[in-house]
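Fill in residues.
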């Protein structure tokens, strides 16, 4: 692996191996290890409801997890800001099972949410990057990551590993609830295992392209990131990465909400970043894609500046955008793991353009557990 000027760039490049290590914890061939299934059986979802509590990037992975668990398993899922959940008070009459997400397993707001859930007698599961962390030890069930120590404040490899483990959790629940047969689950696992290689093959291309885009868009005052469905979570995460790494304002929105107010903000200094990938084998993904393409047509007529992420070779999306970032083909619910990487790189290079110490942005701190 080449030398890197910053930990954030190093950790972006470490993501393929971090994903491989994480998947190795849970998988044997194209199946969950039996001991993993036994462990997850201790975290029951008796009422069919899950509450996810997290903060920052981990909350965005939780938003993606919500779609996974609803679409693949038919569960009802809410995603809470950990800082809000822990101080709401009262009684949760629905009594959902609770899932907490944290890179370090020591995030104070998320620990408080975990404590509140335990006080209420709810079943708890923790996904963390530290197997001996407080959160991992106090939850009923722990699903650790193997991302390795993450030193840069902006989360990168821990985020993509969280997405992978949430996907595995959804596959387990789908099998338990019989919403997916064994053959389909094996296919999903094989597709998940192919992602590190796809990511690895694209990293250098994304690095060159996003460095050039950062130089082109460095004078922008703000960005609006747009995504539909599970891709909304990645729009939120891309915007957060840009804010915390480069100090450039950005917001993530559902693509369909642009014309309900935010469109008034668009100008030469407020470009769009639009997630416009598609899984042609899934009807709902095609419908989402077609709506996004129509939005791109409208934005082109309006004269908006647009960076679009789309499937490699998608000439239609490329023609409607000022700049086009190709993403390798993947199933709908796995595309986010690939989509977020060029957005991480764009944030990194925007930080360099603005002279920011990208590993230690001002006013922010991070818990790192060795």
């Amino acid at each position: 692996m080449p030398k890197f000027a910053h930990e954030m760039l190093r950790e972006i490049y470490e993501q393929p191996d971090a994903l491989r290590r994480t998947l190795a914890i849970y998988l044997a061939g194209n199946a969950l290890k039996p001991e993993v299934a036994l462990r997850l059986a201790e975290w029951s979802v008796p009422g069919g409801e899950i509450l996810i509590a997290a903060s920052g990037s981990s909350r965005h992975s939780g938003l993606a997890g919500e779609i996974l668990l609803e679409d693949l398993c038919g569960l009802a899922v809410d995603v809470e800001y950990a800082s809000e959940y822990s101080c709401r008070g009262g009684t949760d009459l629905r009594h959902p099972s609770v899932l907490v997400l944290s890179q370090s397993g020591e995030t104070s707001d998320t620990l408080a949410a975990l404590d509140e859930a335990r006080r209420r007698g709810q079943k708890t599961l923790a996904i963390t990057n530290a197997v001996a962390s407080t959160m991992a030890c106090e939850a009923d069930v722990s699903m650790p990551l193997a991302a390795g120590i993450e030193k840069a404040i902006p989360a990168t490899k821990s985020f993509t590993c969280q997405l992978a483990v949430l996907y595995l959790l959804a596959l387990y629940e789908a099998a338990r609830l019989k919403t997916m047969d064994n053959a389909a689950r094996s296919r999903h696992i094989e597709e998940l295992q192919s992602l590190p290689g796809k990511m690895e093959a694209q990293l250098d291309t994304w690095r060159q392209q996003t460095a050039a885009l950062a130089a082109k868009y460095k004078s922008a005052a703000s960005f609006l990131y747009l995504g539909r469905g599970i891709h909304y979570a990645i729009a939120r995460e891309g915007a957060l990465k840009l804010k915390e790494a480069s100090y450039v304002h950005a917001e993530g929105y559902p693509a369909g909400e642009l014309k309900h107010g935010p469109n008034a903000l668009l100008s030469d200094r407020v470009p769009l970043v639009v997630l416009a990938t598609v899984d042609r084998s899934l009807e709902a993904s095609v419908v989402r894609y077609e709506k996004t393409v129509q939005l791109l047509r409208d934005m082109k007529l309006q004269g908006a500046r647009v960076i679009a992420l789309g499937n490699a070779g998608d000439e239609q999306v490329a023609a409607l955008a000022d700049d086009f970032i190709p993403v390798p083909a993947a199933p709908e619910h796995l595309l986010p793991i690939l989509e977020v990487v060029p957005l991480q790189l764009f944030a990194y290079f925007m930080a360099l353009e603005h002279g920011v110490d990208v590993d230690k942005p001002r006013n922010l701190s991070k818990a790192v557990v060795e």
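The chain has two domains: 7-194, 198-353.
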